[in-house]
Design a protein that fits this description.
The chain is α+β, with helices and mostly antiparallel strands. It is 45% helix and 16% strand. The chain starts with 8 loop residues before the first strand and ends in an 11-residue tail after the last helix.
Length: 527
């Protein structure tokens, strides 16, 4: 019979080891051991610890076929994951053939290897945090900062083959889809996706090579989605990185980020996906890679498609098989949709301090443009970045001198123009008190062939003062004195800018803005 290339090769019988790890007395306890199965590992939860056993399998992209290979990959997993979650990863431990011939933890000849981790509550897994509605803006910002800081410290991989690295992943995705049994993903769908991905890739070759040469290819996480992030003592921790192939884990940092953004977007946590995307870009200068982000999202969806497709045969119940088939097909559809081009738009949100510009911009950003929504550029954040500071750091008053503010608006204009050229829809958020600032941002939209909408927010003086007094951990340094000073500005004519009464609740202001942008949205917040 011909070899079945769709299934993994099982190289070693691990039944004795698995039976030992399933018994509570193996860990000195009585409570039942909980078992979690994945395509390449089995995790046993016992007491305060989790014990991860690599399956003795060989896929096209990984080889755990011998105890020696499993030991090496366990050691790699421990080392690599201690970069982001040192508190979670305890040790690599052997399972041994003991003197009496039984399997156990006592001394003897090692027959298999485990990664030992501290156990965390299932409620603290980020996919469960998000499912119960607790992935709020503060946690999303903290998560984006965690990823950005990790990428800053990650080992840079000297590379001149950025484009070829991406092409190899696209080709591998097609190969993996073709290995899936017939009837799960239609060959026509996978072939169409492959051709569309290659066409997009061809136009990005120079971008990808330049980014690789500039140090944007790093030893990343590689498998960054909601099920591989947890809360540990209240803080997000990235765990279970791709440990079995450094070539696959070495990628453009935006490709690493794209997995989590895609996961959030597909689960309909779109405000979180957009905020994560924007906060990360606010922390790291990755604007030259924006054009590649749709392809990266598509590639990540394609990976999920073939992983779901390969999992169908491992499901014992018909309903679980049907769910995996539906997921696989949905991810192929998502991968195709991420490659569809949209018409870039530029939305400018202006108004004096305390009118709620950033509150509205954050709410609108996921509703505009193609996935993951609009690039949100905020003068307050750019001012901090130009000073080499995090967005919430405080600046001295001399940072607001006219010449410094001119630099901030010049940076805003430059980044907006670049994002529009990359095909992104852009929201710019600033006071825009000067006619020339408003004229220039309109000109940038016109030059890029993008539609322009200017929204001018107004609010009563007392509301503005109350809002600036109540700010905590915000990028704006404006206080009551700044508001009083701005109220004396001569704003000139607000040509082509539509007035929005921002003295109301955030939801009411958003409703007005959505009405003014009717026909330009990709999604409704009231769906």
């Amino acid at each position: 019979m011909p070899e079945d290339r769709t299934a993994p090769r099982t190289a070693t019988n691990q039944d004795e080891v698995i039976a030992f790890l399933e018994r509570p007395d193996s860990y000195g306890g009585r409570a039942p051991v909980k078992r979690i199965d994945t395509h390449a590992a089995i995790v046993f939860l016992a007491g305060d610890y989790a014990y991860k056993l690599k399956r003795a399998v060989q896929f096209p992209y990984l080889d755990f076929s011998t105890p020696a290979k499993r030991k090496a990959v366990c050691e790699a997993e421990l080392s690599l994951n201690r970069r982001t979650a040192p508190e979670l990863y305890v040790a690599v431990r052997s399972v041994n053939r003991q003197a009496d011939g039984t399997i156990g933890f006592s001394q003897g000849e090692p027959v298999d290897w485990l990664v030992v981790m501290h156990r965390f509550k299932s409620d603290d897994l980020l996919e469960n945090v998000a499912a119960r509605g607790d992935l709020d803006a503060a946690l999303t910002v903290s998560l984006a900062d965690e990823i950005a800081d990790f990428h800053v410290a990650a080992e840079t991989i000297p590379a001149a083959d950025g484009a070829e690295r991406v092409r190899r992943v696209i080709e591998s995705n097609l190969d993996s889809m073709r290995r899936i049994p017939p009837g799960i993903i239609e060959a026509r769908m996978s072939d169409d996706l492959f051709q569309a991905s290659l066409a997009e890739w061809a136009g990005l070759r120079n971008v990808l090579d330049r980014r690789a040469a500039a140090g944007h290819v790093r030893l990343c996480h590689g498998d960054l989605h909601l099920a591989n992030i947890c809360l540990w003592r209240g803080k997000p921790r990235l765990f279970d990185c791709l440990e079995f192939d450094s070539e696959l884990a070495a990628s453009d940092v935006l490709y690493d980020l794209a997995f989590l953004v895609m996961d959030l977007w597909q689960r309909n946590y779109r405000p979180s996906a957009n905020l994560l995307f924007n906060r990360y870009l606010d922390r790291r200068d990755e604007s030259d890679g924006l054009a590649a982000f749709p392809l990266f999202l598509s590639m990540r969806a394609a990976i999920r498609a073939h992983v779901c497709g390969a999992a169908v045969q491992r499901q014992a119940k018909t309903k679980d098989q049907e769910r995996q088939i539906a997921d696989a097909r949905n991810f192929v559809g998502a991968a195709q949709s991420f490659l569809k081009k949209g018409t870039p738009q530029l939305i400018a949100i202006g108004g004096l301090s305390g009118t709620g510009k950033s509150t509205l911009a954050r709410a609108l950003a996921p509703l505009l443009g193609t996935a993951p929504g609009a690039r949100w550029l905020r003068t307050d954040v750019l001012r901090k970045r130009l000073a080499g500071l995090r967005p919430e750091a405080r600046l001295a008053k001399d940072a607001y001198r006219p010449e410094r503010s001119a630099e901030v608006y010049a940076s805003l204009q430059k980044e907006a123009a670049a994002a529009l050229r990359a095909g992104s829809t852009v929201i710019v958020d600033g006071v825009f008190a000067k006619c020339e600032e408003r004229d220039e941002i309109r000109r940038i939209a016109r030059t890029a062939g993008a539609s322009f909408t200017g929204l001018w927010l107004t609010a009563p003086r007392d509301a503005m003062l109350a809002r600036v007094r109540g700010r905590l951990h915000d990028a704006s340094d404006a206080d009551e004195a700044v508001v009083e000073q701005q109220l004396r500005y001569d704003l000139g004519k607000l040509e082509d800018w539509q007035s929005v009464d921002a003295g109301r609740t955030p939801d009411a202001v958003l409703s007005s803005a959505v009405h003014l942008l009717s026909g330009k949205l990709n999604w409704s917040p009231w769906n």
